[in-house]
Glycosyltransferase family 2 protein (Massilia solisilvae), 337 residues
Amino acid sequence: MNKTISVIVPCFNESGSLSHFVDRFRPLLPRHPGYTFEVVFVNDGSADDTFSRIRALAAAESWVKGINLTRNFGKEAALTAGLDYAHSDAVVFMDADLQHPPEVVSDFIARWEQGHEVVVGRRVSRDTDTRAYRLLANVFYRISNRISDVKLSEHEGDFRLIDRKVADKLRQLRENRRFMKGLFAWVGYEPVFVEYEVGRRINGVSSFNTWRSWNFALEGITSFSTVPLRIWSYLGGLVLLIGLGYLLAIVLQAILYGVVTPGYVTLLAAVVGFSGVLMIGIGILGEYIGRIYMEVKQRPTYLVKEMVSNPLETAQAAQPAQPESRSAAAWGAPADG
């Protein structure tokens, strides 16, 4: 029986990478004669001509399709859009910049054929990242794994294959603020790993700067743990005990030894210290309240402006789509997310 594989590739200003990606991926097709592939490029509000390149590639290659989001919703939303529109037997997630080698997809399929429902690419090294980035990433994973029930590995990314049953479970998770690596782990299923060497970016530079990485780390921690809130409850009690102990010591010194109670400097230090502690606590509380605020509005995770595929394929498959899936007829028509 012929099996289908959907390869989801989020794109943000990747115009210079797409042709290289297709050229690298094309040799995989004849290696798997029992499979039908579709590569779904999801244009996440690129400022360059990324979607024009996707349209041209879709017109030239029957296995290339494109989803054009109305604006930049972020990589997590782009991955979700691809997942929602891919109803194949297995789904592969990878980047367009060729840091995820397309050849590794064959190894993913081999493990999947052995009965594994989740196959994850594990980086052999992070030499392509700066030393500071590696240090901060290591700190994030240590903190996240200590305070969350969902365990993450710093050597894993979005590069993976999931079986359709796993994809169906992921589609049930509809929160707006998404941390896909955590969601992959949350649904369970024991993964099997395939090691690979991270390639060099084929074009441009990563849009994931230090500031965005920091915010992404906050997203990951607050999405899967309430420990930061609990910590501040304990910290508040500790600060209260320290303050009461210090007050008692001053009063006893004044009564027993006639020591003059500290004045302006002590008061100023106490006000500044406690104010800083309070502001940090309010900031952490605000992070969670902000996420509640975004979720209760129930806005869609993404909006689709246009979908494209090979015109011949669309014409041949012009049949009504079933409610539980999307046929090739759906490609080429505008749709909402």
Remarks:
- Residues 264-296 form the longest helix (33 residues).
- The two ends are 31 Å apart (CA to CA).
- The mean pLDDT is 80.
- The chain has eleven helices and eight strands.
